[in-house]
TrEMBL record:
Family: Belongs to the NAD(P)-dependent epimerase/dehydratase family. Dihydroflavonol-4-reductase subfamily.
Classification of source organism: Eukaryota, Viridiplantae, Streptophyta, Embryophyta, Tracheophyta
Annotated Pfam families: Epimerase, NmrA
Keywords assigned: NADP, Oxidoreductase
Any single biological process term in GO: lignan biosynthetic process
GO molecular function: oxidoreductase activity, acting on the CH-OH group of donors, NAD or NADP as acceptor
UniProt-recorded name of the protein: NAD-dependent epimerase/dehydratase domain-containing protein
Length: 395
């Protein structure tokens, strides 16, 4: 499969230096690829450049030998991005933890249970955890969470402290403090003309408004942090808090920022490992019943193009939803069955409840960036072909 993107052209970036944070990730790898294709010099930040699974696919990109520079940076280390960003014309901030599971997911529940049994079986461990968490709490680490939520569960406070502090440390802090850390480096560097922030439709959908087939969601919507908490949508909470903090910081410090809000992203993988948003597609082709859930979907190459256009078009401003189509997972099962009729794809939902309704997402602003969306059918085929190419599946 070719990694070049037709129709995007080459050469606009000649002589310009830009930074991409979290460059080893699924979306960021495509942004780096496209920037190199357009002639930019790319400073790619990685948490662990010594890990070949994170680095090698970037080094293989066309133009990498001449114009790709690798920097080590961690979202949680103050000033970590200074050297990568200093002297750049533009910054693409994509790095953020991506975990789309909700708390009542079996995998998260089993994690919760394993904390519970460790604490119940081992009082010394429990006491140590409790002491550490009290110190963290006193230092304000838990400040984004509401104490009543913890107190309601008074019978097992330690478990909830553990869970909440883990959420804070693993998801909320890297997203929120990490974004501010990157923006602080941008504010220090007068060369930076624009920052493109990778936010998410998760920072849009969770208002008080219903999501039904007649509703058209647009960029004026902004998720409410309390709603995300109520719904236990922790990833959405992290993206909502991060984008909100980013706009406040950018406005206060005169940073020209544009945010990109993709829905679930699929399409070919450049990195060797399966990322969160393509996982459900792998699960369906492996014969699992489809989830009773509805998501918007978009091709990873269209998301990368949107980032570059948002950077290059001087009049681009504000937020851009990037969504091709909103569908129930039953639609994935149908399309995948049509594409691969010999596979044992189940025409069965994982529960017997009525299907969650769909909604619509406005394409008006995305189209003003010149985005021509790849149809979901093509995106799903490209995703599965990429699994085959990387021997993630063998059929
Ligand atoms: N995929 C989607 O469907 C989707 C949809 C909407 C928005 N987004 C957003 O798009 C961005 C990229 O997502 P993705 O799907 O490409 O996910 P991904 O493949 O998991 O990439 C996430 C990147 O963030 C980096 N990262 C995480 N924690 C970090 C830390 N503490 N310090 C430095 N880097 C850290 C990861 O580094 P390591 O590799 O070292 O872990 C990785 O490079 C995220 O901001 C995500 O919220 C994704």
């Amino acid at each position: 499969m070719s990694n070049s993107i037709a129709g995007i052209g080459t050469g606009n970036g000649n002589g310009k230096v830009v930074c991409v944070t979290g460059a080893s990730g699924y979306i960021a790898s495509w942004i780096v690829n496209l920037l190199l294709q357009r002639g930019y010099t790319v400073r790619a930040t990685l948490r662990d450049p010594s890990n070949p699974k994170k680095l090698d696919h970037l080094l293989k990109l066309h133009g990498a030998k001449e114009r790709l520079q690798i920097f080590k940076a961690d979202l949680l280390e103050d000033g970590s991005f200074d050297s990568a960003i200093d002297g750049c014309d533009g910054v693409f901030h994509t790095a953020s933890p991506v975990t789309l599971r909700v708390v009542n997911d079996p995998q998260v529940a089993s994690f919760h249970n394993s904390i519970r049994s460790s604490l119940v079986d081992n009082p010394l461990f429990a006491a140590t955890v409790f002491a550490v968490l009290c110190i963290m709490s006193l230092r304000g680490v838990l400040s984004n969470f509401h104490c009543p939520v913890l107190l309601k569960q008074a019978q097992l406070p330690i478990i909830h402290f553990s869970f909440v502090s883990l959420l804070q440390a693993e998801l909320i802090d890297p997203a929120v403090k990490g974004t501010l850390n990157v923006l602080q480096s941008c504010a220090k560097s007068p060369s930076v003309k624009r920052v493109v922030l990778t936010s998410s439709i998760s920072a849009v959908l969770f208002t008080d408004r219903p999501l039904t087939p007649d509703v058209v969601v647009d960029e004026t919507w902004f998720s409410d942090a309390d709603n995300c908490t109520k719904l236990e949508r922790w990833y959405s909470l992290s993206k909502t808090l991060a984008e909100d903090a980013a706009w406040k910081f950018a406005n206060k410090n005169g940073i020209d920022m544009v945010s990109i809000l993709p829905s679930m992203v699929a399409g070919p993988l450049l990195q060797p490992e399966v990322n969160e948003s393509v996982e459900p597609i792998l699960s369906i082709i492996n014969g699992a019943p489809f989830p009773n859930r509805v998501f918007g979907w978009v091709n990873v190459k269209d998301v990368a193009i949107a980032h570059i256009q948002a950077y290059e078009i001087p009049t681009a401003s504000g937020r851009y939803l990037i969504v091709e189509r909103v569908v129930h997972y039953s639609e994935h099962a149908r399309i995948l069955h049509d594409l691969y009729p010999t596979l044992q794809i189940k025409d069965k939902c994982e529960d017997d409840k009525p299907f969650v309704p769909t909604y619509q997402v406005s394409k008006e602003k995305a189209e003003s960036l010149g985005i021509e969306f790849t149809p979901l059918e093509v995106t799903l085929k490209e995703t599965v072909e990429s699994f085959r190419e990387k021997n993630i599946v063998n059929f």
